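Anyone up for a design puzzle?
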C-alpha cells in the first residue's frame, strides 16, 4: 500500500489556524498562544496608576492655585499641574506602546504560520507571463496571483508600480 500523498491544504483550512476561546488565541495546538487582549494586568495597572496620579496632581494644582493670590505663590503649584499632565500623558503613551507591541508580535506569529502552511501554494500558483500582481478594486494590498487571500476573488492584474500608484501596499502573507 502506497503512503498517502500529502496534498496542498485548501484555502478554507485557514479558518482553522486560529481559534479564539474566551481569553486566548491559539494559533495552532503546540504552538505559542497569545492572550486575545493585547494588554495584560501590569499594563492596565500602570495606566490606571499614572492616570489617577496625574488627575490627583492636576486637582491639587487647581485647588492650590485657586487659593493663592500672589503669582509667585501660584507658580510652584502650576508646576505641580504640569507634572500631573506629563504623568498622565506618559501613562497613555505607555499604554498605546504596549498595545502596538503586542499586536506586532501576534501579527508576526500569524503571518509566519500562514507562510509556513501556504508558502508552497503561493509558489505553485498560476504564474503566466506578464501577470504581475493582483488586487481587487477596493483592496488596500496587492498579492501574488497564487496567494490564498485572493483565492476565488474577482481580481485584476497590474504591475507592482501600478498597484503602488493606486495606494496599495504588498501583502504580508504572500510577500508580494
Ligand atoms: Zn497575498
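Challenge accepted. My sequence:
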Amino acid at each position: 500500500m502506497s503512503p498517502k500523498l500529502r496534498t496542498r491544504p485548501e484555502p478554507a483550512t485557514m479558518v482553522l489556524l486560529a481559534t479564539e476561546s474566551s481569553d486566548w488565541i491559539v494559533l495552532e495546538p503546540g504552538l505559542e498562544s497569545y492572550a486575545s487582549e493585547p494588554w495584560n494586568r501590569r499594563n492596565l495597572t500602570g495606566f490606571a496608576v499614572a492616570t489617577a496620579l496625574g488627575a490627583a496632581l492636576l486637582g491639587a494644582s487647581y485647588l492650590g492655585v485657586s487659593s493663592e493670590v500672589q503669582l509667585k505663590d501660584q507658580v510652584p503649584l502650576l508646576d505641580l499641574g504640569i507634572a500631573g499632565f506629563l504623568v498622565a500623558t506618559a501613562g497613555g503613551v505607555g499604554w498605546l506602546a504596549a498595545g502596538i507591541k503586542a499586536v506586532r508580535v501576534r501579527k508576526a506569529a500569524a503571518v509566519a504560520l500562514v507562510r509556513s502552511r501556504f508558502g508552497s501554494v503561493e509558489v505553485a500558483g498560476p504564474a503566466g507571463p506578464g501577470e504581475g500582481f493582483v488586487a481587487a478594486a477596493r483592496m488596500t494590498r496587492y498579492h501574488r496571483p497564487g496567494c490564498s487571500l485572493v483565492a476565488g476573488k474577482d481580481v485584476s492584474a497590474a504591475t507592482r508600480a501600478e498597484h503602488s500608484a493606486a495606494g496599495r501596499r504588498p501583502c504580508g502573507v504572500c510577500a508580494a
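A detail worth pointing out: Residues 143, 147, 149, 171, 173-174, 176 surround zinc ion (CB under 6 Å).
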